[in-house]
């Protein structure tokens, strides 16, 4: 399978950790930053999870140039904190074309994890928990 880096809205196309304060207001967690953009981190997590739990070989787009592999793409719609509910929220809209098929399967995956405080020390573990759940759910779907 080939896993493409998901597209993202502008609010999470950054290394800063977004906090949805109101439906129209976004802030960022002070002193918190990812090592790279969340879309790349999430793609790597999907790759690792599919390799481990779905027993699939994950190829880069360059490696799959002449191979009719399955392709997983999508949009990482949310990868941040909801201030109103004190939860980390990960939402991924996946698109899958299975090997040898032309039809596109689409599905939304969402996970939430409580966060004790909206600070640099607390948001990372909560987001990791939610992202791991989404990656596991995606692996179960793709592996069937």
Description of the structure:
By secondary structure, the protein is α/β, with parallel strands linked by helices. Helix content is 27%, strand content 35%. Strands 1, 2, 3, 4, 5 and 6 form a six-stranded mixed sheet that branches. The radius of gyration is 16 Å and the shape is elongated. The mean pLDDT is 90.
What is the element string, with H for helices and E for strands?
A: EEEHEEEH
- Which descriptor suits the 3D outline? elongated
**What class, by secondary structure content?**
alpha/beta
Beta-strand percentage? 35-45%
Distance from N terminus to C terminus (CA atoms, Å) equals 13 Å
> Helix fraction?
25-40%
| Low-confidence sequence ranges | none
The biggest beta sheet is recorded as: 6 strands, mixed
Mean pLDDT score, rounded? 90
The number of distinct helices, counting runs of at least 4 residues, comes to 2
Q: Would you count the extended β strands for me?
A: 6
Radius of gyration: 16 Å
Would you kindly provide a brief summary of this structure?
The protein has 144 residues and is α/β, with parallel strands linked by helices. The protein has helices at residues 38-53, 120-142; strands spanning 2-3, 16-22, 25-33, 71-82, 87-97, 105-114.
């Amino acid at each position: 399978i080939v896993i493409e880096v998901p597209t993202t809205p502008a609010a999470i196309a950054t290394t800063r950790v977004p906090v949805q304060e109101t439906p129209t207001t976004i802030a960022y967690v002070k002193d918190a930053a990812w090592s790279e953009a969340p879309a790349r981190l999430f793609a790597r997590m999907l790759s690792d999870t599919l390799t481990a739990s779905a027993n699939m070989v994950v190829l880069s787009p360059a490696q799959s140039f002449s191979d009719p592999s399955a392709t997983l793409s999508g949009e990482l719609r949310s990868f941040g904190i909801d201030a109103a509910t004190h939860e980390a929220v990960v939402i991924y809209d996946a698109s899958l074309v299975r090997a040898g098929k032309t039809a596109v399967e689409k599905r939304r995956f969402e996970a939430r994890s409580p966060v004790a405080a909206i600070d640099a020390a607390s948001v990372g573990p909560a987001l990791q928990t939610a992202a791991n759940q989404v990656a596991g759910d995606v692996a179960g779907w793709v592996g069937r």
